[in-house]
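Consider the tokenized backbone below.
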């Protein structure tokens, strides 16, 4: 997953990750999930562009090891992609920056 995120960060103006675990990669903005957030059981990749929208959702289907199986759903339906993007964006908390008020 780290390799995919690094490649996406190289070609994307914004790559926001909302994760149950730490994500420390150059060019990736990361927001931790609350421990009890049900979204922590899934991995979502959402792409929304002016002429394209897609979402990939994955859930581990077995033990967390190198040969883990995943249940996945890939959709190019823009309505689903926008709904997935909304779900991710609502989990991002505003963090005040020093010297600036929250807007």
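A designed sequence for it:
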């Amino acid at each position: 997953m780290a390799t995919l995120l690094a490649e996406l960060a190289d070609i994307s103006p914004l790559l926001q990750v909302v994760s149950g675990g730490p994500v420390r990669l150059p060019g990736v903005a990361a927001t931790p999930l609350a421990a009890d957030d049900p979204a922590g059981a899934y991995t979502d990749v959402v792409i929304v562009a002016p002429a394209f929208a897609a979402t990939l959702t994955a859930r581990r289907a077995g033990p967390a090891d190198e040969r883990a199986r995943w249940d996945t759903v890939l959709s190019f339906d823009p309505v689903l992609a926008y709904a997935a993007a909304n779900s991710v964006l609502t989990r991002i908390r505003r963090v005040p920056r020093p010297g600036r008020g929250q807007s």
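The mean pLDDT is 79.
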